[in-house]
## 1
Amino acid sequence: MTSKPTLFSGIQPSGDLMIGNYIGSIKNWVKMQDDYNCLFSLVNLHAITVEQSPEALKKRSLDFVAWYLAAGIDPDKSTVFIQSHVPEHSELAWLLNCHTYMGELNRMTQFKDKSAKHEQNINVGLFDYPALMAADILLYQTEKVPVGADQKQHLELTRDLAIRLNNKFERELFKVPEPFIPPTSAGGRIMSLQDPTAKMSKSDENKDNFIALADDRKQILKKLKKAVTDSGSEIYYDLENKPGVANLLTLYSVISDQPIDAVVKHFEGKMYGHLKIELAELIADYLEPIQNRFTEIRSNETELHAILTKGADHARQQAQPTLRAFQEALGFVLR
Ligand code: TYM
């Protein structure tokens, strides 16, 4: 057992892993890897709350794990696993279901957005998704959860549940987790390239809205050239009045690891077109070594499966004491 605080995060294998996921979460996972006992999950139970093609889901799941590793997650330091390999997630989710109120889930903006998008398939899982997410986190006595801003409301519910259950059973069943969300200007909410008032999303049907981690230089340049900017021609950061330019400046700042002010200064007197072309080169150069590592890692499925088996074993070991303690508190006869 480790004395480091525990960190948990996950990504759903839906759509094409893209730069917003990388900046909002994976990039921070890599940075925090040495200071925490980290668990990084590929959350496939979450992905089936919307319709998925089974073949695509299987392929994409291994792709995403390979991207985690290619981006710098070290399986010798961190626990990397597939959510469905650790049945404790579903089990705790059920127990949490019985302590989560309909009204709480009804308020979730992601549920409202997704049920509007998937009118034909508003299933119970889609509604209940935040209880499963709370289970993911609480199962490991997690203290830190690095995510993008869109997950804030789910994290608040997770904290409420932990506090409610600790109070109800008068013992510390669960640690109360802290979210780690970068501010918008540092990539907590990367916006869509075609509609900078909407968040960039990996499952967007219009692939021009996002830069996938797998996009090559030509595709990146094409997408950025088409990106919606704003009226005017001066390059400065104004989230409210110039959301398109602000989004491009944020991407430039995060990827080049320079403060926004320095980036604005660099583009003084230049046109939007310059910003787009330089940003495309910057992102392409940044992604190239990650893409090369991805190709190498993805080509060895045996090794990927071995990493995932070890990860699941390790995760289960860590999950079981928390689940047992909760079952005990509930009055279950333990075997
Ligand atoms: P998902 O799969 O939609 O996204 C994965 C991660 O990427 C972040 N993200 C973004 N960050 C910045 N700008 C964007 N445009 C952007 N789009 C997505 C997300 O915030 C997330 O961190 N419910 C989660 C998965 C999950 C999870 C968990 C996360 C399930 N259980 C437990 C943490 C802990 C989700 O749907 O993420």
Note: Residues 8-12, 20-21, 23-25, 43, 46, 133, 136-137, 145, 147-148, 150-151, 187-190, 199-200 surround tryptophanyl-5'AMP (CB under 6 Å).
## 2
Amino acid sequence: MFETLQAQPADKILALMQMYKDDPRDIKIDLGVGVYKDATGLTPVMRAVKSAEHQLWEQQDSKSYTGLAGDPAFGDAMVQLVLGDAVPRGNVAAAATPGGTGAVRQAFELVQMARPDARVFVSDPTWPNHLSILKYLGIEVVNYRYFDDETRGVDFDGMLADLKTAKQGDLILLHGCCHNPTGANLNAAQWDDVIKVLQDTGATPMIDIAYQGFGDGLDADAAATRKIAAAVPECLIAASCSKNFGIYRERTGMLMAVSLDASAQKLNQGTLAFLNRQNFSFPPDHGARVVTMILNDDALRADWMAELEDIRNTMLGLRSQLAGDLQRLSGSDRFGFIAQHRGMFSRLGTTPEMVEKLRADHGIYMVGDSRMNIAGLNATTVPILARAIIDVGI
Ligand code: LMR
């Protein structure tokens, strides 16, 4: 039977992780997969997560099943974290998923169930796994212009023109903050223009918000998502706790479907539970429970927010250090965009050949499209990277 299988293309990001591990050089820098690392190169367990896990170990007296959509308390906590008071809670269906990727997958399946002919508009570029999942599900993809190779900012006119070609029954996938892979984001006025296009076309937005708290702060990063949710009749939101709680391997995410009224919410909630049952039955609980405990306990929440702010400010510091070093070494402002970008990533905007040269000559690993994980740097490796970038002639 299985001899009929064909080898599948390796995920570029995960393949890079392996190449880095296999590289025997002493000096090498991993700017590949989107994982935060502290100054010592460690991806730490956050303090509040440790405390909550400790409490959980002491207090948890059963590991029996929760609900198909996860513990409702997790749903409430996440809806509040992402949406605040933007829409009535009773209008939001929420289902826990295995990580943000699980939420993305469930969202696309939901769309396919509702509208088998839906097209999904995705930014060019987008997170490669968006494209991979869409292809796997056989959903038609339409690219919209996003990254401006010249400015390394958003090609907003191009984006808007392309989004205007969407119609009712289409889905427009947006990155709520900290665009992956480019790091280039819309400003508030531009988000308002996007909302206008959503209203004019009737297309449904889906917001992937995997990095809330990594850009300009927890509320600022959710501002566009909240505004969109309040401005259109329906929207989907795929949220992840992998990065902002640092619980990558616990696979903790949440799919939300916002609708206009409670009866649509009921139908959505039932459908999300059904989809979970078909794909994996009950979602993972450990990370979700830890997140719920943190969000519902004043002291744990304050400690978590403080540590998240430290992480965010560390990344901002690394951005300005790198932009500053490159300004000095190149004698130009052409790398200023690195300080303007937000989130874990910046797209350097160079060729795959240059990316390969950085790897071969300097042991610097970044994704082939020149996406660098800023959080993979530290104060010592920034100057090494800056010199290497100039050395290879970028
Ligand atoms: C990334 O983009 O590096 C992360 O979201 C990790 C992943 O699963 O690809």
Note: The chain has a mean pLDDT of 97.
